[in-house]
């Protein structure tokens, strides 16, 4: 058979799918001068290919099928698999309808189709419910699928073939590194799946349980990448990369023992790293580390099942990263149910004080299938599922209006990215005299921004 794999380029803003928000995806549209710059940065460096489609391509190719890829064009074939999302599902279903009129059978894969099948059912011959590889294997062996088809999670991840990036033509990073990640992104790699934590708002843990590949299997895949590309840039998409410290030590040791020349980034919790581990990871190729801070308030975090991390430890890890020239990217969530203006303002202040290289701020979004959704469904007013994008208010907040939430979201980006110290961090200017001057400039810029905000919103009395 001729198999068409579709990861459609998103419409309206910068759309990320695949492993973003567990697979529901996000859409970032600029809503201020500061976020226009952030939007441009994301388009240049965050447009990475789908690791799940690369696995699907490998399974079909292993069985002798002809595999082609599309990011939007209609392609002749016998069967099409569409990577689903919540934030761009209308585009995806329109494309599926057009393909079906050409006589192509169409199936949807991914978290969105698994948890929200009613959005896709009228536009598909079948929907893969769960991680797709098991059902894809049945398709590759000639089984016909119809309707909603359960796809059990593969427990032995080492049994899967390595992703076939050569068949996913979108995956062509240019290799030009103006920052840490090359223009055009890098190659995603899943060393584990699921998440071992219990945050009630997180969709990463609702499709299947946590499992990890063997270290040897992961390094074998890295070695294969090195044979196909000079010094590949690898993006580990594990939700908690350093969950098992000994495993990461072994991984780094094997990368170095085999003489593999790679750069990589990962996402983890800051209480799962320390100075010694960071030095080992940096020597193996770590160049960027992402992590969730979410909120500065321990009480806010405990109410949503997230274990707080002492601010002192967070600052120590950031300082270790600066010393090792590791880029840091922190994630923050505004608008938890117990948040108010003061708690969000405190989180914004903490973000600037912590001063990672980059920061991403999002609004709390209750995603279907999460424990938070069950709690907050009565408060959800948004009926357009595409607006569950991480940057749009979707529910009646107990303490803040939608206008206030959007104002605070914009303020977070302005306060963080308009600081002179942001540029100082980018250019790694850490001289004591220079930093003293930069800190004074930070205070002046922050005061000016605050005056402008007060003119817009008035003094806060809550």
List keywords for this structure.
462 residues, alpha/beta, Rossmann fold, TIM Barrel, 2 domains, 6-stranded parallel β-sheet, 15 helices, 38% helix
Could you explain the architecture of this structure?
This protein has 15 helices and 16 strands. With 462 residues, it is an alpha/beta fold. The protein has helices spanning 33-45, 51-62, 89-101, 111-115, 133-140, 215-228, 245-257, 275-284, 298-302, 311-323, 341-354, 371-376, 402-417, 420-426, 432-457, and strands at residues 2-6, 14-16, 26-28, 66-70, 79-83, 105-109, 126-129, 147-150, 187-189, 192-193, 211-212, 233-236, 263-268, 286-294, 327-334, 358-363. Helix 7 packs parallel to helix 8 (275-284), helix 11 packs parallel to helix 13 (402-417) and helix 13 packs antiparallel against helix 15.
Give the N-to-C terminal Cα separation: 63 Å
Q: Largest beta sheet: what is the strand line-up?
A: 4-1-5-6-7-8
State the low-pLDDT regions, or none: 171-176
Which overall shape is indicated by the principal axes computed on the Cα atoms? Answer: globular
Tell me the number of structural domains. 2
Helix content: 25-40%
The SS-based structural class is alpha/beta
What share of the residues does DSSP label as strand, in percent?
Answer: 15-25%
The appropriate CATH architecture of the largest domain is Alpha-Beta Barrel
What is the CATH class name of the largest domain?
Alpha Beta
Give me the number of helical elements.
15
- Counting DSSP E segments of at least 2 residues, the number of strands comes to 16
Determine the CATH topology of the largest domain.
TIM Barrel
Major sheet details: 6 strands, parallel
Going by CATH, the homologous superfamily of the largest domain would be Aldolase class I
Radius of gyration: 22 Å
């Amino acid at each position: 058979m001729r198999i068409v794999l579709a990861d459609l380029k998103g419409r309206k803003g910068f759309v990320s799918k695949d492993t973003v928000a567990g697979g529901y995806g996000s859409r970032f549209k600029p809503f201020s001068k500061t976020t226009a710059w952030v939007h441009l940065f994301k388009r240049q460096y965050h447009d990475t290919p789908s690791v799940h489609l690369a696995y699907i391509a490998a399974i079909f190719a292993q069985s002798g099928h002809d595999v082609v890829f599309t990011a939007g064009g209609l392609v002749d074939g016998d069967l099409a698999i569409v990577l689903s999302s919540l934030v761009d599902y209308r585009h995806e279903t329109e494309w599926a309808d057009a393909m079906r009129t050409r006589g192509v059978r169409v199936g949807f894969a991914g978290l969105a189709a698994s948890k929200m099948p009613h959005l896709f059912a009228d536009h598909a011959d079948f929907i893969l419910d769960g991680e797709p590889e098991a059902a894809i294997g049945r398709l590759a062996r000639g089984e016909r699928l119809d309707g909603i088809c359960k796809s059990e999670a593969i427990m032995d991840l080492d049994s899967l073939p390595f992703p076939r990036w050569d068949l996913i033509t979108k995956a062509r990073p240019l290799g030009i590194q103006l920052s840490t990640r090359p223009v055009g992104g890098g190659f995603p790699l899943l060393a584990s799946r699921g998440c071992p934590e219990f945050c009630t708002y997180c969709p990463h843990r609702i499709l299947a349980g946590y499992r990890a590949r063997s270290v040897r299997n992961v390094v074998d895949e890295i070695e294969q990448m090195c044979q196909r590309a000079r010094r590949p840039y690898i993006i580990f998409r594990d939700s908690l990369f350093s969950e098992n410290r000994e495993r990461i030590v072994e991984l780094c040791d094997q990368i170095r023992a085999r003489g593999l020349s790679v750069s990589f980034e990962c996402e983890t919790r800051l209480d799962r790293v320390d100075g010694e581990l960071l030095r080992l990871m940096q020597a193996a190729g770590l160049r960027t580390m992402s992590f969730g801070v979410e909120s500065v308030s321990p009480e806010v975090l405990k109410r949503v099942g997230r274990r707080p991390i002492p601010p002192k430890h967070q600052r120590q890890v950031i300082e270790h990263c600066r010393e090792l020239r590791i880029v840091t990217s922190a994630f923050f969530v505004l608008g938890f149910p117990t948040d108010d203006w003061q708690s969000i303002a405190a989180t914004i202040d903490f973000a600037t004080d912590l001063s990672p290289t980059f920061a991403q701020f999002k609004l709390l979004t209750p995603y279907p299938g999460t424990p938070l959704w069950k709690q907050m469904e009565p408060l959800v007013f948004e009926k357009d599922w595409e607006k569950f994008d991480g940057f749009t208010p979707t529910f009646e907040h107990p303490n803040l209006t939608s206008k206030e939430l959007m104002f605070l979201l914009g303020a977070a980006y302005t306060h963080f990215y308009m600081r002179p110290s942001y540029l100082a961090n980018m250019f790694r200017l850490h001289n004591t005299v220079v930093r003293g001057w930069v800190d004074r400039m930070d205070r002046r810029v922050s005061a000016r921004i605050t005056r402008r905000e007060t003119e817009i919103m008035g003094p806060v009395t809550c």
